[in-house]
């Protein structure tokens, strides 16, 4: 989606001030492209909103991936679930989170960034409390357990609204860094929830397994984050939901091409992160998933900003294409590790794969505005329209790309059910990455192509 903002074009010298409405912490006039306003008043306000946004988004990702670490412990807590059912539990939050991303993006313009951050933060109480109740009642039917796990998808929608909101606080020259911090701060929540010294430590504190703590431990943090958003964040009155621009972006060919590629980059990251603890448990029963699973999400999150920086230097398409090659290689090495029954080799292969997903997340995000700038045509009005459509396209692409987080665990599950091993699924992924590499080359790296000349 896109938000329309009123303000001066870069290079103007008109000084503005952050005028507020009387209630609700609304700022009616906001122009970060005005250098004097930005340095004197805008930057501190934007930084404050960014910090709180990172906190809430981080909790969103944490709750979104909570079932990935809970699922591996359910059968030790009185449940009797198959591996297929457990993989359903880690896949459904990704499906719901992906579906919520687009409406969450529009919510910023409809209700205000601060207001929606408070609401979206408080919505995280539903999956947290629901999980605590569900795991304490092993007799509940599987469909009810699956429905409760699905509510963790509320955390997946937070990313879209958070990125949209922050993008309008910062000038173009600093937007990349701000959005990179915002995204990385959220993504690393996946590693935090899987780290052995967080959820696993809490549910095993004092001996035994007390699984309901995995949900309730986040309740006070969610309440504190919502309070901080209420106390310290701002709504921008100049940001409005622009459905027409979103519709225009949806008609662009490259919106759908990049959505397909983002399924392979961000979708792979979320899918592998969600399934990794279960994969370790299934293929290497003697290994404790909690000791190692978090490393994948950690290296993938940390690699994301570097992918964006590298893309700035050599072009996002080149970095994305190379990432698909490395991702295919990582999956191939993992297959060899399974055949060799080597956990160390398996872990190293997946860490390589996670790094490549992180790098490509950053590079694909960098490609989107570049692509729309190339196709915009001449003139200031055309370039302004391209910026708005690029922002709208990012909302669509991020929503569709997140569906990969659902497909990856489900393909693993189907392969394990039918073949007794996840190897067929991994061979499918190698083929998918080969197709995505070909698509990247055809549209953005093919000799003589318009996008190749522009080094998008």
UniProtKB/TrEMBL annotation:
Concerning SUPFAM superfamilies, the annotation shows:
MFS general substrate transporter
Gene Ontology annotations for the cellular component aspect, listed alphabetically: membrane
An example molecular function term from Gene Ontology annotations: nitrate transmembrane transporter activity
Cellular localisation:
Membrane
InterPro entries named among the record's database cross-references: MFS, MFS_trans_sf, NO3_transporter
Locate the compositionally biased regions of type Low complexity. Answer: 1-17
Q: How does it sit in the membrane?
A: Multi-pass membrane protein
List the residue ranges of the region (Disordered).
1-23
Q: Which residues cross the membrane?
A: 50-74, 86-104, 116-136, 142-160, 181-204, 210-230, 260-278, 290-307, 319-337, 343-363, 390-412, 424-445
Keywords associated with the record: Membrane, Transmembrane, Transmembrane helix
Judging by the UniProt lineage, the source's domain of life is Bacteria
Give the primary localization class. Answer: membrane
- Provide the family line: Belongs to the major facilitator superfamily. Nitrate/nitrite porter (TC 2.A.1.8) family.
Q: Which PANTHER family match?
A: HIGH-AFFINITY NITRATE TRANSPORTER 2.3
Name under which the protein is recorded: NNP family nitrate/nitrite transporter-like MFS transporter
Q: Which organism is it from?
A: Mumia flava
């Amino acid at each position: 989606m896109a938000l329309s903002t009123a303000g001066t074009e870069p290079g103007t010298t008109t000084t503005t001030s952050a005028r507020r409405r009387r209630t609700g912490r609304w700022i009616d006039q906001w122009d970060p492209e005005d250098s004097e306003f930005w340095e004197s008043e805008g930057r501190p306000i934007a930084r404050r909103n960014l910090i709180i946004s990172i906190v809430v988004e981080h909790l969103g990702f944490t709750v979104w991936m909570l079932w990935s670490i809970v699922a591996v412990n359910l059968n030790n807590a009185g449940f009797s679930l198959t591996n297929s059912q457990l993989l359903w539990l880690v896949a459904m939050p990704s499906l719901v989170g992906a579906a919520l991303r687009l409406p969450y993006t529009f919510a910023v313009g409809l209700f205000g960034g601060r207001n929606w951050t408070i609401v979206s933060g408080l919505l995280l109480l539903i999956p947290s409390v629901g999980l605590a109740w569900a795991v304490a009642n092993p007799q509940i039917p599987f469909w009810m357990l699956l429905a409760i796990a699905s509510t963790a998808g509320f955390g997946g929608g937070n990313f879209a609204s958070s990125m949209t909101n922050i993008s309008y606080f910062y000038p173009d020259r600093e937007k990349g860094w701000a959005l990179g911090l915002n995204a990385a701060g959220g993504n690393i929540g996946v590693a935090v929830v899987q780290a052995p010294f967080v959820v696993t430590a809490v549910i095993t504190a004092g001996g035994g397994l007390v699984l309901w703590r995995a949900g309730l431990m986040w309740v006070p943090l969610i309440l504190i984050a919502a309070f901080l958003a209420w106390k310290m964040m701002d709504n921008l009155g100049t940001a409005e939901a622009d459905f027409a621009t979103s519709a225009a972006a949806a008609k662009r060919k490259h919106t759908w091409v990049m959505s397909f590629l983002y399924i392979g980059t961000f979708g792979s990251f979320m899918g592998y992160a969600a399934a990794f603890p279960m994969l370790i448990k299934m293929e290497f029963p003697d290994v404790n998933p909690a000791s190692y699973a978090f490393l994948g999400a950690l290296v993938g999150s940390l690699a994301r900003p570097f992918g964006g920086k590298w893309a700035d230097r050599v072009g996002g398409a080149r970095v994305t294409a190379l990432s698909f090659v490395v991702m295919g290689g990582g999956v191939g090495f993992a297959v060899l590790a399974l055949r060799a029954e080597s956990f160390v080799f398996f872990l190293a292969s997946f860490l390589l794969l996670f790094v490549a997903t992180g790098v490509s997340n950053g590079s694909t995000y960098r490609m989107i505005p570049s692509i729309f700038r190339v196709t915009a045509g001449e003139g200031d009005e055309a370039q302004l329209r391209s910026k708005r459509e690029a922002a709208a396209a990012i909302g669509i692409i991020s929503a569709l790309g997140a569906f990969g987080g659902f497909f990856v665990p489900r393909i693993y599950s189907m392969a394990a059910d039918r073949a007794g091993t996840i190897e067929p699924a991994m061979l499918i992924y190698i083929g998918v990455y080969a197709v995505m590499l070909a698509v990247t080359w055809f549209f953005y790296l093919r000799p003589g192509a318009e996008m190749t000349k522009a080094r998008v």
